[in-house]
Write a structure and sequence with these properties.
5-stranded antiparallel beta sheet; alpha/beta; 433 residues
Length: 433
């Protein structure tokens, strides 16, 4: 039974502050009452356009009808057994379909878990089991989760790592390319080589892990050249290449996996967020012989691969194929990019507009200087957007990047309405500065 509530956002936020630790942050002081595709309504009845998508979880929109129908049907059969105790077909079928989608001309197997961090954690376990090595190389600006291992991999301190150390050992960070700030692909590869010289020999490195597009790091796109050279470097030294596609995967960038656009087949891929349209599930997909390295019983989890989430994920794949949502992702991305680029011509504070597919961001700076990040303006823009009925998120090492993760199923009218709000909100934030 649904509870009747006459509470306001302010009253609910006061209750939240009394009952929930401050470490669970909130970017918006809003409580949702209902969501539909790319729109939400709060407990006070106000409508908002959702350009956050639950942080890249809702590629197929709030309450996608096909996803809801699949889950309702599953509710009438069974809700939980723990796959390791009693197996069920949706887990197997989903693994088969993801194995077929993953790049690489080799046999693949898939493991299901519950969260993105759990997927990354298990990818490292699998890599270590297969190689018999311990070292892992990640990248500056990367974000991989909130567990101790994934925090160690994450290349951004505040707020994720502050006060939580020490972190697991033998994790090293290479430089991520960023042409806007003068970091080339050569610089990035050289930093990996320097790790081999100064920190750990290549023969003790189990894996290199990278986001094809950095999420929390600011939507920095890994150049295809970087991915190709990392692949060659890994092959040279017997290192596994892991692509963390927790945020980029499930069609956000215009292909099911972002790494497909680099022409590189990683050994392991992590996937979560949008793969089940809002239901919690994650995956590790990889070479069959690599995935089989851990002994029986070494992988799994009580809720891992929930039957509810498995059928939801199958429905998401069906929706992508039925409605050609990969092309829609490319179209949405082009529409957003064109709008933000026009805005950049009017405002020197926009240092860059970038992204891949419908994973698009703009970076803000002071005085037209790309080396002066403007986090204050970024926060003000987000606040002004909220006042006008648009939910957006910020990110980046310096907190000066606005990221857009609107559902791919949003109509062009809703997209344009949201983009117009961004333009108005930026003008208002600049005027108030």
């Amino acid at each position: 039974m649904q509870r009747e509530s006459q509470a306001t956002n302010a009253l609910l936020m006061a209750r939240r502050q009394a009952a929930i630790p401050r470490g669970v942050g909130h970017s918006h002081q809003i409580f949702i009452a209902r969501g539909e595709n790319a729109e939400i309504w709060d407990v006070e009845g106000r409508r908002y356009i959702d350009f956050a998508g639950g942080i890249a979880v809702l590629n197929t929109g709030h309450r996608n009808p096909a996803v809801i129908e699949a889950v309702k049907a599953q509710l009438d059969q069974y809700t939980h057994t723990c796959f390791q105790v009693l197996a069920y077909e949706p887990y197997v079928e989903l693994a088969e379909r993801l194995n077929a989608k993953a790049p690489g001309d080799f046999a693949k197997k898939t493991l299901f878990l519950t969260t993105g961090a759990e997927a990354v954690e298990n990818a490292i376990k699998i890599a270590r089991a297969h190689t018999g090595r311990s070292g892992v190389i990640a990248f500056t600006g990367g974000y991989h989760g909130r567990t101790m291992m994934t925090l160690g991999l994450t290349g951004k301190v505040a707020p994720y790592k502050t006060g939580f150390g020490p972190f697991p050992g033998e994790i090293f960070h290479a430089r991520f390319p960023n042409a806007l700030h003068g970091v080339s692909v050569d610089d990035a590869i050289d930093s990996v080589e320097q790790i081999f010289k100064n920190d750990i020999e290549a023969r003790r490195v189990a894996a290199i892990i990278i986001e094809p597009v950095q999420g929390e790091g600011g939507f920095n796109v890994a150049p295809p050249e970087l991915m190709q050279r990392l692949r060659a470097l890994c092959d040279q030294h017997g290192i596994l290449l892991i692509c963390d596609e927790v945020q980029t995967g499930a069609g956000r960038t215009g292909t099911w996996f972002a790494c497909e656009q680099s022409g590189v087949a990683p050994d392991l891929i992590t996937l979560a967020k949008s793969m089940a349209g809002g239901f919690p599930i994650s995956a590790v997909i990889g070479r069959a012989e690599v995935m089989d390295a851990p002994a029986a019983g070494g992988l799994g989890g009580t809720y891992a691969g929930s039957p509810m989430a498995c059928v939801a994920a199958l429905a998401v794949i069906d929706e992508f194929e039925k409605h050609d949502l990969l092309q829609r992702s490319r179209d949405v991305g082009a529409r957003i990019t064109a709008s933000l680029q026009m805005l950049a011509k009017k405002h020197h504070c926009i240092a860059d507009v970038r992204g891949l597919g419908a994973m698009v961001a703009m970076e803000l700076c002071k005085n037209g200087d790309v080396h002066q990040p403007d986090a204050d303006l970024t926060r003000a823009l987000a606040a002004e957007a909220t006042k006008r009925g648009l939910i957006i998120l910020t990110c980046g090492t310096y907190g000066n990047v606005v990221r857009i993760l609107v559902p791919l199923t949003a109509s062009n009218a809703v997209l344009d309405e949201g983009l117009a709000i961004i333009a108005d909100a930026l003008a208002a934030a600049l005027k108030a500065a």
